[in-house]
Amino acid sequence: MELTRSEILPGVWLSHLRSDKFKTACLSLNLLTQLQRDTASLNALIPYVLRRGTRRYGDMEALSARLDELYGTAIEPVVRRIGEIQCVGFYASIPEGDFLPDGQDVLHDAAELMGEMLLAPNTRGGLLLPQYVDSEREKMLEMIRSRINEKRGYALFRCIEEMCCCEDFAVGRLGSESECENIHYKKLTRHYHDLLQTCPIELFYCGRASQKKVVSVLRDALATLPRGEINYDIGTDVRMNALEDEARTVEEKLDVNQGKLVIGWRLGECMEEPDLAAMHVFNAVFGGGSTSKLFMNVREKLQLCYYAGSLIDTHKGLMLVSSGVEFSDKDAAQAEIFAQLEAMKQGEISEEELEAARSGVAGDLRSLEDSQGELEGFYLSQALDGPDCSPLELAELCENVSKEDVAAIARSVDCDLIYFLTGGGESEEEDDDD
Amino acid sequence: MTTKAYPRLGETLYTTTLPNGLTIHVVPKPGFCSYYAVLAANYGGDHRRFSLGGEMIDTPAGVAHYLEHKMFDLPEGDNALNLLSANGADPNAFTSGSITCYYFQCTEKFEENLRLLIHFVTTPYFTAETVQKEQGIIGQEIRMGEDSPGSAVYYNLLKQLYANHPIRDRVVGTVESIAQITEETLYACHKVFYAPSNLCLCVEGDVDGAAIEAIAREMLPPEKAELPVADFGPEESLLPQETLHRECMAVSAPQFLIGAKFRPVEGEGALRQRIVAQLALRLLVGSSSRFYTSLYADGTLNRDFDYEADFSAGTATVILGGESEEPETVLAALNERIAEVCKSGFAPDAFERAKRASYGARLRGLEDFDSVCVSLASGQFEGYCPFDAPGLLDQVTKAECEAFVRENLQPERFALSIIEGKKAEA
């Protein structure tokens, strides 16, 4: 598989990956914009409103019937946050003609439909339909509120929110409830036109069609895209240090049976010249999987929790450790998590631990090549701020990471905040403002 | 080993059954870096009562899942999860009501990892101490499940629908039920349910079927063991026990599920019934249905809405639901739409479109090694091959889908389960 990048229209970039491996092709379209508190929800809402109906297929019933006709082609809104760049648009999965009756080719029709969703929505007097905007706004508000339903994800979100309280990163990919509540169809229409004119656009295709054909299909589909001055001035504010000298602590009470401990670090000075391979291997040794120090010690050996793992955000420069613990085991689990990190700083990493981490990370990267969805994510984040290499090349770099490389990352990280979700909420006592 | 080509899907399936009763399915995928293997036992949380050699045996709730956790322990003090991970593989396991699956995905050392998988799943090693120790971890898992509204709304629905079938109870069991589990329980259940005749091995990747067969032959005992016969209790009435159940939990919006039982077809017609049920539901409540699009447009439903026909351990259940401020309105609209279908049928053009969409969805499903392998294993235990689905889909008629709705989805058959939020103080 060879990646070809080309600018097919002003500020519109296509990453084309030809592959015969799959039964469906994938095509994604992303408008890139700076994540900001006052526009995050506006941006996020746009693909959802556009997905409600086009000029030709005025409502969801007509639009969905058209997708059924195209052999269940799926075109769904996607909203992502990669570092502090918000990516909004569509992700399509399109059955390959080779597996359809008479070798029917649906790529052209699917791309055309995606273009219509983006450029020719159902409007009245040039404005997005208020009933679509209102209804999608309410649904998005509910998505924002529903963060609390799944406690593990909620605790992670809350830790980031507190940790990055002075950064736009805290707002999350969908923005905040208060911003979302105020969205109005006129304001959204204006914002939609701004985005179309100014956003760099990243397209990704992986499938059987040649680059030439995909370029031609997409140029047709996006022929009416209005382009103004493209805003390339977007990026992520990476902070090297914790907000305060001593890690801050936040405790929140909810009616839960199991506590959730989440600890947040800044990745620190290693973000000055990020060595992605070393970071991935570091994370795998510390808490990335079932051979990691956290899994082996906090879960298996000391039995302090049901899960304990770490994840890193190499765009924003954060590490988060998340763990489900009995309320009474919180302090012991926390102490053990820090003890394991301390051991890594001292270089206490066995050959077995290092080798398992290296081969695990390399294997994960190699298997990316077998999943279009994963490839799409990999190349999108690479197009934003990643290194210029394929998953296979990065896998090879991971295999050459040394113990000292890993220990250096451990010494670089700086603990910023300790968040604990504990029981006892919902009682008579009123929640203090925190 | 028999070879069957599915040219329309671009797949080939190798299948063999060894003299010891183990069935092996292999899907070769030249050009892929990943390998995936699952060793599945026809044993899940619902197999609590069974007969063997004329004797009826009862076991506590949660044994199948407990066993899954403990199977990773090996006699040499090793842990299979660690050995596989150290080898670069990504191993895991899950237990449902009807099946236990041990699997790994890797890009290197496939044969070595496959040997490890077969070795640990067929090597029971439990001590009083390790079994005791696991109670804490599983206890935490049980608690985590109790905090999950999704799990609560589901099990409440099953309790409303089923009077006796063990599908009513959580696969993980309860803190009390797992307290009764000892190493003897685990050894006994392993012996009964993990004999090769009760297992199925499915592999996908750039592999050779004959080599996999040779490894399985070499590693597993040649004898064919007697199969246990599960007893899921007396036949259930088709009507729910309780039509409406509400519970309060910390959720931002009410979550709901609507369910109805129907009689599963076994053997020959099993796959066709699954296809008909799935297609009928797509037409009735799928993403392009009038039911869904109108309730979505007026704000009653959102994107969380989903539906399925679930077949498990001798049960068949239609389940649909998601989030809604007005679950009762959803049920009323559903009954209304069903009445229309009973009267006038589905529109012919909508039926043709739904078939196309269903074909595309099945094609997409083939991209996932894990879902292909797990569906091959569960199909094996339930008597069908999922790769036959697209061919059968062509034959399914509109009348069959209408009959499915008419016969199984009458208003009295439905139960509604709701989890409501506790009103937050302002």
Write the layout of secondary structure elements.
The complex is a heterodimer of chains A (434) and B (426).
Chain A: E1 3-9, E2 12-18, E3 24-34, H1 40-50, H2 60-69, E4 74-82, E5 85-95, H3 107-119, E6 123-124, E7 127-128, H4 130-145, H5 151-163, H6 177-181, H7 185-198, E8 201-207, H8 211-221, E9 248-253, E10 259-266, H9 276-288, H10 293-301, E11 305-313, E12 318-325, H11 330-345, H12 351-368, H13 372-385, H14 391-399, H15 403-412, E13 414-422
Parallel strand pairs in A: 2-8, 9-13
Antiparallel strand pairs in A: 1-2, 3-5, 3-8, 4-5, 6-7, 10-12, 10-13, 11-12
Chain B: E1 2-6, E2 11-17, E3 23-28, E4 35-41, E5 49-52, E6 55-58, H1 63-70, H2 80-86, E7 90-95, E8 100-106, H3 110-121, H4 128-146, H5 149-161, H6 175-179, H7 183-193, E9 199-205, H8 209-219, E10 229-230, E11 244-249, E12 255-261, H9 270-285, H10 290-297, E13 306-312, E14 315-323, H11 327-344, H12 348-365, H13 369-382, H14 389-395, H15 398-408, E15 415-421
Parallel strand pairs in B: 3-9, 11-15
Antiparallel strand pairs in B: 1-2, 2-3, 4-8, 4-9, 5-6, 5-10, 7-8, 12-14, 12-15, 13-14
